[in-house]
């Protein structure tokens, strides 16, 4: 049973690699971005609340995100482990996650951080924007906001796991298959 945080800036390839990891390890994918987009599509109260933050590329408030993740963990029965994708994005979220997992006698095995330079991220997000239907992928200002928010609010989360000796960095540029191989060697070492 592994619980892994897949970390990286927007456009780092977290979603792509998560899909492959779920298939290989049978883990449950917990992407807060996907969950919010589902709520948005279904027009729930939570979706309406998250919408303005998402469309501007800003973070949804911690208590909202944490509550949603808690529900998802509690309703997932017989899980063989989770891949957390796009969560935690603040140190407060990371602390809350540790707390939630410890209530189920679980812990994070490690954080795998995909390293991708900013110019590559921009090109990838713009490419994705052509087909993703995501408002936040379509506009240079929003893309810049997301990268800025990542650098200022989310990057400290890597320090949180580094302090627990749980951080592994992976080069996120190159062939998808090679990046996947590098990630699996980290997981297989847990
Ligand atoms: P993502 O698909 O992970 O890029 O997330 C899309 C958007 O959803 C983000 O730009 C935020 O507005 C919101 N979001 C997703 N995950 C989180 C999180 N852990 N904390 C705050 N906001 C989030």
TrEMBL record:
It is found in: Cytoplasm. Its EC number is 2.7.4.3. One of its GO terms (molecular function) is AMP kinase activity. It catalyses: AMP + ATP = 2 ADP. Belongs to the adenylate kinase family. Monomer. This is Adenylate kinase.
């Amino acid at each position: 049973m592994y619980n892994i945080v897949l970390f990286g800036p927007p456009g780092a390839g977290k979603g792509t690699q998560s899909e492959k990891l779920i298939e290989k390890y049978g883990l449950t994918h917990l992407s807060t971005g996907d969950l919010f987009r589902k709520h948005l599509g279904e027009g729930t109260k939570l979706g309406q609340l998250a919408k303005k933050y998402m469309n501007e590329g800003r973070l949804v408030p911690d208590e909202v995100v944490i509550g949603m993740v808690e529900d998802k963990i509690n309703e997932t029965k017989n899980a063989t482990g989770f891949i957390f994708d796009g969560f935690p994005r603040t140190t407060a979220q990371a602390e809350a996650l540790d707390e939630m997992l410890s209530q189920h006698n679980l812990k994070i095995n490690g954080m795998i951080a995909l390293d991708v330079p900013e110019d590559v991220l921009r090109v990838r997000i713009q490419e994705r924007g052509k087909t993703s239907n995501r408002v936040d992928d379509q506009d240079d200002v929003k893309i810049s906001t997301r990268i800025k928010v990542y650098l200022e609010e989310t990057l400290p989360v890597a320090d949180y796991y580094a302090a627990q000796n749980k951080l592994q960095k992976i080069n996120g540029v190159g062939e998808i298959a090679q990046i996947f191989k590098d990630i699996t060697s980290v997981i297989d070492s847990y």
